[in-house]
Amino acid sequence: MLAVARHADQTAFAALFAHFAPRLKAFLMKSGATAAQAEDCAQDVMATVWRKAGQFDPERASVATWIFTIARNRRIDLLRRDRRPEPEDLPWGPEPEPDQADALALQQDSQRLGEALAQLPEEQRALIERAYFGDLSHSEIAAATGLPLGTIKSRIRLALEKLRQKLT
After folding, report:
1. CA torsion 125→127→132→138, rounded to 10°?
2. What is the pTM of this model?
3. How far apart are CA 35 and CA 37, in angstroms?
4. Phi, psi of 68, rounded to the nearest 5 degrees
């Protein structure tokens, strides 16, 4: 890896490719990719390894860890892209009026949620409101409140569990 990083050594890269490409393909197939998707992704990962070899730091991770982290992140990116709807799949025009029974059920559910939220301790309720109604990430909430990220996550997790118990 260091020969690739320092000297763009093609022979060293060929050896890396021969060693890691089949393992990457197997790893990706185990995570749910088809053989063709895994092959494409593995090749893309190895191309990234070639381009970004200079960013590899043996002090921070082994070669295998670095390459498999790239593969894992690339697989996540592909899954997110596949879930995103194409513009032609999105509905156009006004949405149909909801059924009266559905509207009433939604109103009742909203009322129950509001009552359950009101019963939460203030520090948990405020974080739930920022996360879900304010559309803030946990990191953004931590920055705004000055609380540690772990505290934010713990309080939100506890609050969600209490809400689940009250709403089921």
Report:
1. -160
2. 0.50
3. 6
4. -70, -30
Q: 54-93 burial by CB neighbour count: b if 16+ within 10 A, else e?
A: eebeeeeeebeebbbebbeebbeebeeeeeeeeeeeeeee
Q: Which tens digits make up the pLDDT trace of 133-142?
A: 888 899 999 9
**CA 88, chain centre distance (Å):** 25
DSSP reduced 3-state for 69: helix
Q: Is 152 exposed, middle or buried (0-12, 13-18, 19+ CB in 10 A)?
A: buried
| Distance (Å, whole) CA 21 – CA 43 | 7
Instruction: Please name the residue ranges forming H helices in the chain.
Output: 2-7, 10-30, 35-51, 63-83, 100-118, 122-128, 138-145, 149-167
**Inter-residue contact 11 to 29 (CB < 8 Å):** no
The residue type found at 17 is F
Query: Is-contact 128 160, C-beta < 8 A?
Result: yes
Q: Does residue 89 carry a pLDDT above 70?
A: no
Residue 128 and residue 120 in contact, taking contact as beta carbons nearer than 8 Å: yes
Which of 158, 117, 124 has the alpha carbon at shortest distance from 141? 124
pLDDT (tens digit per residue) in 14-65: 999 999 999 999 999 998 888 998 999 999 999 999 999 999 999 999 999 9
Q: Pull the structure tokens for residue 55.
A: 């960013």
